[in-house]
């Protein structure tokens, strides 16, 4: 890949940007969990007041959504040539 091609890429697909977003997101997540030591979270239920509950719950929901999407994709998947027909009355 030459430098002209690399410069014309969208900024969100550049490896340096992706790495920076991962680092920034990880720092932000760690900061929000760390701040729970100083800011008392009063949850509606008992478990949602636990330290790091939002981070763990968000991660588990994300994993669940990916697994459901993969399962749904297997369920409704069609062959690659499904719309190219085979028996048509043209």
Describe the structure.
The protein is mostly helical. The protein has two domains: 1-35; 40-78. Helices cover 57% and strands 0% of the residues. It is built from three helices and no strands. It has helices at residues 3-8, 15-35, 53-76. The radius of gyration is 23 Å and the shape is flat. The termini are far apart.
Poorly predicted regions are none
Could you tell me the number of beta strands?
0
Helical residues, percent: 55-70%
Radius of gyration: 23 Å
Shape: flat
Order of helical and strand elements:
HHH
Number of helices: 3
What is the mean pLDDT?
Answer: 85
Strand content: under 5%
The biggest beta sheet is recorded as: none
Q: Tell me the span between the first and last alpha carbons.
A: 46 Å
How many separate domains make up the residues? 2
Q: What structural class should be given to the helix and strand makeup?
A: mainly alpha
The quaternary organization reads as single chain
Nutshell version of this structure?
The chain is an all-alpha fold.
Furnish the topology, listing elements before pairings:
Layout: H1 3-8, H2 15-35, H3 53-76
Q: Which descriptors would you attach to this protein?
A:
90 residues; 3 helices; 57% helix
